[in-house]
Amino acid sequence: MDYALAHHYLEGAELAARSGDRDTLSWYRTHSRTFPPHWFTTTPIGPTIVQCPDPRTLRQSPIADTPYHLLGPNTEPAPPLATELVAAAFDIGAEYGFGDLIADHAPIVCLLIERKLGEPLNSWAITRLPGTVFLDHVGDPTILARDLIHEAAHNWLNTALAAADVELDDGKTWNSPWKNTRRPTFGFLHSCWAFPLTMLFAARAVRRVPQVLATYLAQHRRKLASTAADHQHALAAVTDTDLRERLRTVHALALRACPDQPPLVT
Description:
Elements: H1 2-19, H2 22-30, E1 40-43, E2 46-51, E3 59-61, E4 64-68, H3 80-95, H4 99-105, E5 108-114, E6 123-125, E7 132-137, H5 141-163, E8 173-176, E9 181-184, H6 185-205, H7 210-225, H8 228-234, H9 241-256
Parallel strand pairs: 2-5, 5-7
Antiparallel strand pairs: 1-2, 3-4, 6-7, 8-9
């Protein structure tokens, strides 16, 4: 949590300094060691900060297209229904073996649009705010847990690549069945890591929402199977042996959808 908050403070302080907003800059400096306690919600696996920003008010960076939300002097907790939904999703994620992943890599949750079941759900994480995730949802904690795992997985992999000093810029591209386009090694391996983890979760939690998760698992098993050959070749770009084998193992486990194998992300 502290690491995720630090990036909000760094980003907020930089924006305040550039715009000449002395009051906001002073606030970030004053609260850099003592975070406002009313931001936090207690969950079974640790604290979370839940926000429900209006998607129309999300910030845009001049150097990236992905919108984002910053914690700052005007931040208030999300409504109780939202915090209860996230706390329940954290609990479910932990029940099926993904508690550490969510707690460490998605402690700040920004719920965006509540959609109907069956509608497309948008979600993302950005490298400038590790530990923060942005998600649409359907009001169901199990489905939210699945999507939290997906975005936490992206944050985990970014951290792991940086820690291992691995740069995935080999210039190669691979067919991504999730985007129906060719993607560079970085994006391809991210997809082949995040989706398998959600598949493992779906296989374990399928009894909670059988129709949704069984359909999800079948669809993504077919997509993942189509990446098998390319995934083996793309992994050559991961020069750290332990990380490479972890990515390979999770991909293989997801193809078998084995519910008894613990996640290899701690």
